[in-house]
Design a protein that fits this description.
Number of strands: 13
Structural class: alpha/beta
Shape: globular
Order of helices and strands: EHEHEHHEHEHHEEEHEEHEHEHEHHH
Helix content: 25-40%
Distance between the termini: 19 Å
Number of helices: 14
Radius of gyration: 21 Å
Length: 422
């Protein structure tokens, strides 16, 4: 066992961002390391219940509760995805960069760390580490949101480029994505100036200051290029269930196929799509469990007789008996379904969900519908997924490969090595 080290983990409340960091925190603690986590105030209870020391953001945005009344950004209300992404950039990723940096500096001066592991989205944390000369690594709890050579640009759910025309189009989209991000460069450089750091030419130059960028997804799931940049590594998904999930017994199943309906744990204006999914399942001989997850409030979706709605439930327990998952395509839900070998119907709402959906479809592990698909289309897709065995077989084969990646993940030895560097 390596020498005990001190790790500071930094993330924020935005659906699937916290649970992977807590998974990592638990595993580091199990290996004898000292670990603490910085995040929004609403994450205190689940963090401390996991035995991990908690530090809330003080100057930076810090949601007091997970209900949508406390949301810091409303990307779902933007008229197009690019403006929605800018909403996130302005209110969390870069706009409050100085506040995140100052919180990070204060915590590190209070108690130093051998290594900081930060969400790759929190540019202020990264700048704070740079200002202090602090070793840090970045963890992406999803596919890469930022350009990687040979990987389709984030957003529209593209397949890998095959023709010269597609390669040119992907390169153009990648440039547009970087230009969009660079609209926030003045805010990042203002934070850097306040920290005594030189200006950057591009926002993504901040990532180059980190020792490693670790992708907590599966190479088998992603469009992984043959060779990655030297500082980038796949480390497999981190899938411990959130601490706020109810452990109450699930509704009793019957002989009908079981369907899990699991959409976003943050509000993405998805009540209407959940209602259409529920109504579509009401037409079919299935038994469904709908988990609202905090993004949607109890009573907002009218359930048919064969659908039970719960505020939360163990998805691992539900997936052990599920024949199908209907989801928005959040990374954690998709990974968990595939690990259990369960095919998916994906109805993306935004963020990284179109890209996750495209990968599910490309692997033959499910189908994709638009979020505004009608009841008939949803019912037809569910029926097809239940009666055509290829979807389940492909999901099971992909799940076996993902489980293998999790079992041989280099994550913990890599982080211990980074923490022990002179």
């Amino acid at each position: 066992m390596p020498d005990a080290r001190t790790f500071l983990l930094a993330t924020f409340e935005a659906g699937g961002m916290v649970a992977p960091m807590l998974t990592l925190a638990r595993r580091l603690r199990e290996r004898g390391h000292r670990v603490r986590l910085m995040s929004d105030r609403c994450n205190r209870e689940e963090c401390e219940s996991a035995g991990v020391a908690f530090r809330p953001w003080q100057r930076a945005p810090s949601k007091p509760g997970r209900d949508r009344a406390h949301d810091v950004f409303r990307d779902w209300a933007a008229p197009d995805p690019a403006l929605g992404f800018l909403e996130l950039v302005e209110h969390v990723l870069i706009g409050p960069a100085r506040a995140y940096a100052e919180d990070t500096l204060e915590e590190l001066r209070r108690e130093p760390a051998d290594l900081v592991i930060a969400s790759e989205m929190l540019f202020g944390v990264q700048a704070g580490c740079e200002a202090l000369g602090q070793r840090h690594a970045l963890l992406a709890a999803n596919i890469s949101l930022f350009p990687l050579p040979g990987v389709p640009p984030f957003g529209p759910g593209l397949l890998p480029a095959r023709t010269p025309e597609e390669h040119a189009r992907h390169a153009e989209l990648a440039r547009e994505s970087e230009a969009l991000l660079d609209r926030a460069l003045p805010a990042l450089n203002a934070a850097r100036a306040a920290l005594g750091l030189p200006a950057l030419a591009h926002v993504l130059d901040q990532h180059a200051r980190a020792r490693r960028l670790l992708l907590a997804t599966a190479r088998a799931f992603d469009y992984a290029p043959p060779a990655l940049p030297a500082h980038v590594a796949y480390v497999g998904p981190l899938l411990d269930e959130p601490g706020w999930v109810s452990r109450a017994p699930l509704p009793v199943d019957d002989a009908r196929p079981a369907v899990l309906v699991a959409f976003s744990t943050t509000f993405q204006n998805h009540v209407a799509v959940l209602q259409r999914v529920t109504d579509a399942l009401g037409r079919l001989p299935v038994r469904a469990l709908l988990t609202l997850g905090g993004g949607v409030r109890e009573g907002e979706v009218r359930c048919t007789d064969n659908v039970t709605a719960l505020a939360s439930a163990s998805h691992d327990a539900a997936l052990r008996r599920a024949a199908l998952v209907v989801t928005h395509g959040g990374h954690g839900t998709v990974m968990r379904a595939l690990v259990h070998g369960v095919p998916l119907l994906v109805m993306p709402l935004g963020r990284d969900q179109h890209d996750n959906a495209a990968r599910v479809a490309a692997r033959g592990a499910g189908l994709v519908l638009a979020a505004d698909a009608d009841e008939a289309a949803i019912a037809a897709a569910v029926q097809r997924l239940l009666v055509e065995p290829a979807f389940a077989l492909n999901a099971q084969a992909l799940g076996a490969r993902i489980r293998e990646e999790i079992a041989r993940s280099p994550l913990l030895p890599l982080l211990e090595s980074l923490a022990g560097e002179a």
